[in-house]
Amino acid sequence: MLKLRPVITFLRNIRKYHRFIGISLSALFIISALTGVLLAYKKHINFIQPKTQSSIHTEAQGIDYISIDSLIQIAKQSAVVKADQAQIDRLDIRPKKGIAKVLFKDLNWEIQLDLRTGEVLSQQARYSDLIERIHDGSIISDGFKVGSMSILGLGLIILTISGISLWFGPKYIRRQKNITNTLE
Questions:
Q1: How many CB atoms lie within 10 A of CB 34?
Q2: Are 59 and 76 in contact (CB under 8 A)?
Q3: What is the longest distance spanned by two Cα atoms in the chain?
Q4: Residue 81's pLDDT is what?
Q5: How high is the pLDDT of residue 109?
Q6: Distance (Å, rounded) from C-alpha 74 to C-alpha 38?
Q7: In the prediction, which pLDDT does 61 show?
Q8: Which strands form 99-104's sheet, in the order they lie side by side?
Q9: Most buried of 91, 107, 128, 164, CB within 10 angstroms?
C-alpha cells in the first residue's frame, strides 16, 4: 500500500485541477461547440448560408461578363440599406456557376448576381460569418481570438490528459492491490 500512496495523492490533485479547469472553461467550450455544430451544417441550412444559385450563363458559354464595378453598383442598389451605407466585405466570383456573391460587411447579407447580365438571383441573410466570428472569438477582438483559442486548446489538452489519468489511475490502483493480495 505504501507504493500506491504517491499515485493516490497524484490522482486526487489531478481531480482538483481537472474539475477547476473544466468548470472555468465550460462556457467557452459550450459556445465553441454549439457554433461549431452550426458551422458544420452551414451549407445545409439556408438560414445560416443561402444556397449557391446557378446562372444559365456559365463559363462554357463565354467570358463576356460585366465588370466588377458594375456588379458592386447593382449589389449596392439591391441591398436592404442605402447604397452609401453598404460596405462590401468581399466578392466571391464563381465562373463555373456564372454568379458572383456579394457579401456586405456588418449586415449579414448576401446578394448573388448573374455574372453576364447582373440580374439578382438571390438576396438573403447570411449568418455563417457572424457564427464563425462568435466561434473563434474574433467578434470581441483579434487579441481575444488568439487568447481564447490558445486557452481553449491548452485547456482541452490538459482535460484530455487528466481525464485519461483519472480513468486509468483507479484501474491501476485496483490491479496493484489485487497483485498484492494474491501474493500474501
A1: 13
A2: no
A3: 90
A4: 65
A5: 87
A6: 31
A7: 56
A8: 88-94, 99-104, 109-114, 120-125
A9: 128
Give the chain as a 3 state SS string: CCCCHHHHHHHHHHHHHHHHHHHHHHHHHHHHHHHHHHHHCCCCCCCCCCCCCCCCCCHHHCCCCCCHHHHHHHHHHHCCCCCCCCCEEEEEEECCCCEEEEEECCCCEEEEEECCCCCEEEEEECCHHHHHHHHHCCCCCHHHHHHHHHHHHHHHHHHHHHHHHHHHHHHHHHHHHHHHHHHC
- Provide the pLDDT for residue 60: 55
Q: Mean pLDDT for each 10-residue chunk of the chain (184 residues)?
A: 79 93 94 95 90 72 80 83 74 89 86 91 90 94 95 95 93 85 76
Domains of the chain in sequence order: 1-47+130-184 (no CATH), 50-126 (3.10.450)
pTM for the predicted model, two decimal places: 0.74
Which residue is associated with the grid cell 489531478? Answer: 14
**Of 109, 142, 115, 139, nearest in space to 127 by CA:** 109
